[in-house]
From TrEMBL:
The keyword Transport does not apply. Residues 19-34 have a biased composition (Polar residues). Its EC number is 1.11.1.6. Transmembrane segments: none annotated. One of its GO terms (biological process) is response to hydrogen peroxide. It is an enzyme of class 1 (oxidoreductase). GO terms for cellular component: cytoplasm. This is catalase. Belongs to the catalase family. Keywords: Heme, Hydrogen peroxide, Iron, Metal-binding, Oxidoreductase, Peroxidase. Residues 19-412 form the Catalase core domain. Its cofactor is heme. Heme binds at residue 354.
Length: 527
């Protein structure tokens, strides 16, 4: 006698039938096959084993940073000019050339430190990653909302992230760990002044700026290069939350920013950003008090006026969050002809890190997935096979000649667009040195002075709140740094912690720390 647990479909049930991935009909999705109703299960239980083992593999590793995020789609529309000049004078990148030319984009906004389901109202930088699907292949511009970064050399990245991430034992994010590291990292001051101001908690993703942060290059048809920085300015305006606002949002909803973005796009209120670019000649700029390759610095707008080069509109949400957001892979090495790297020491490290992590996180064939494919370009490589390779239309179509060069067939090299050399000649001995002109405090102080009164108050409150949870030695060093950033900031934070300038006057500069003339004068005044 058969024990039919599942009674089968009603005669008028028109829903499609359940199958497994092999296309076999599933007659019973409630009971495994066993020897008798109470008997042991057998290993040939294919349907059950497939179901469970696929479930066991549902998760891929989340991103080591920027795990919580949301991808949406839209287009970039070029203005064709840089200020009053044709853009071709500075870059030959095709997507920028013609006014009105549109390029498809995928944009992923994210927080940095929390896990995949963490709060979107955390005080944390926000990621702003744009993938342009151009006719020359993909270009990724992978930036943040604060314009600068904590460190300037990629070798420090795992340390800064370990300090910011929750304690590996208790899983709490601890100010003591964060400021322990920052107190020994003077280049972080500019970022900290931004992060602990209201800008550190954007109201949502639509109301924040984006910045490429690192310095890149543009190259024109003559092979002439310039240094550039990219900025996205939201047409919606910039809105932020205080810690109190954020606590209220977080109490009810951990994903308010994703929801806000989806809702806006779905009701036809398409968010828009203008892309503006700052530019300087491709050299060391000894006249500046900072190095143009230092990502802890912004470029003064009076000297390097930001010029609009296009706009971006987001008008579509993904159909499959996992395929289009979790598997989306952005990287700073993904550039098209006419755009290039600079020698920014963060940029080179980032460029290795992104595709390295994606080969591990998503798999070696991550570029075959629809969201990552160069869908508007001609793609033909001699790469073959590997785990989960499926795009054999492109990659297996000429199996006999899957190498190059060949006189019998296969693929040929493309013609170099114009020049294969560009940029200034670089000479130097191999060394491990920080860049000169570190000037860690000046711009942080200028940023503080540019803030409105309520923003300064918020910054001081947030810093005092966090630092009061730190050991005394960390508090003192941070007050010492803030006094060098801007006297008023140092005095106010010190006041909140019960630390006076006299208490920290005896502290020596950190080992190897570079102080400017101005920093030394400020130090001398402490005692
Ligand atoms: C994501 C490394 C600095 C913006 C990531 C990921 C890694 C990484 C491993 C995860 C990528 C993935 O799993 O797909 C690094 C290293 C850095 C660095 C080594 C410094 C040396 C920065 C800076 C910015 C930034 C300075 C901002 C300008 C982002 C963004 C994402 C990201 C936006 C998320 C991309 C996405 O949405 O998938 N980074 N990062 N990173 N990083 Fe960085």
């Amino acid at each position: 006698m058969t024990d039919v647990a599942s009674s089968g479909p009603e005669p008028d049930d028109n829903r499609p039938e359940l199958t497994n991935r092999q296309g076999h009909a599933v007659f019973d999705n409630q009971n495994q096959r066993t020897v008798g109703a109470r008997g042991p299960a057998t290993l040939e239980n294919y349907q059950f084993l497939e179901k469970i083992s696929h479930f066991d593999r549902e998760r891929i590793p989340e991103r080591v940073v920027h795990a919580r995020g949301v991808t949406t789609y839209g287009y970039f529309e070029a203005y064709g000019k840089w200020g009053d000049e044709p853009i071709s004078r500075y870059t030959r990148a095709k997507l920028f050339q013609e006014a009105g030319k549109r390029t498809d984009v995928a944009v992923r906004f994210s927080t940095v430190i929390g896990g995949r389901d963490s709060s979107e109202s955390a005080r944390d930088p926000r990621g702003f990653a744009v993938k342009f699907y151009t006719e020359d292949g993909n270009w990724d511009l992978v930036g943040n909302n604060l314009g600068v970064f904590f460190i300037r050399d990629a070798i420090k990245f795992p340390d800064v992230i370990h300090a910011l991430k929750p304690d590996p034992v208790s899983h709490e994010q601890k100010p003591g760990r964060i400021f322990d590291f920052m107190s020994q990292t003077p280049e972080s001051m500019h970022m900290l002044v931004n992060l602990f101001s209201p800008r550190g908690i954007p109201a949502d993703y639509r109301h924040m700026q984006g910045f490429g942060v690192n310095t890149y290059k543009w190259v024109n048809a003559e092979g002439e290069s310039v240094l550039v920085k990219y900025h996205w300015l939201p047409k919606q305006g910039v809105r932020s939350m205080t810690a109190e606002d954020a606590a209220n949002v977080q109490a009810k909803d951990l994903g308010h920013a994703t929801k806000d973005l989806y809702d806006a796009i779905q009701r036809g209120d398409h968010p828009e950003w203008e892309l503006v670019v700052q530019m300087m000649s491709d050299d060391e700029h000894p006249e500046l008090d900072f190095d143009p390759l230092d990502d802890t610095k912004t470029w003064p707008e009076q000297e390097f006026p930001p010029k609009p080069v296009g706009r971006m509109v987001l008008n579509r949400v993904p159909e499959n969050y996992f395929a289009e957001n979790e598997q989306a892979s952005f990287g700073t090495g993904v550039l098209v002809d006419g755009l290039d790297f600079s020698d920014d020491k963060m940029l080179v490290g980032r460029t290795f890190s992104y595709s390295d992590t994606q080969r591990y996180r998503v798999g070696p064939n991550y570029l075959q997935l629809p969201v990552n494919q160069a869908k508007n370009a001609h793609v033909a490589t001699n790469q073959r096979d590997g785990q989960m390779a499926y795009d054999n239309g492109h990659h297996g179509s000429n199996p006999e000649v899957n190498y190059e060069p060949s006189i019998t067939g296969g693929l040929r090299e493309a013609q170099y667009p114009t020049h294969d050399e560009q940029g200034p000649e670089i000479r130097g001995r191999l060394t491990r040195k920080r860049i000169p002109r570190t000037n860690d405090y000046l711009q942080a102080g200028q940023r503080y002075l540019l803030m409105e009164g309520w923003e300064q108050d918020d910054l001081v409150t947030n810093l005092v709140d966090q630092l009061s949870q730190c050991p005394r030695a960390v508090q003192e060093r941070m007050v010492w740094h803030f006094l060098l950033v801007e006297n008023d900031l140092g005095l106010r934070v010190g006041d909140g912690l019960g630390i006076s300038p006299k208490d920290v006057a005896g502290l020596e500069p950190l080992a190897g720390q570079d102080l400017s003339e101005d920093d030394r004068k400020r130090l001398a005044r402490l005692g």
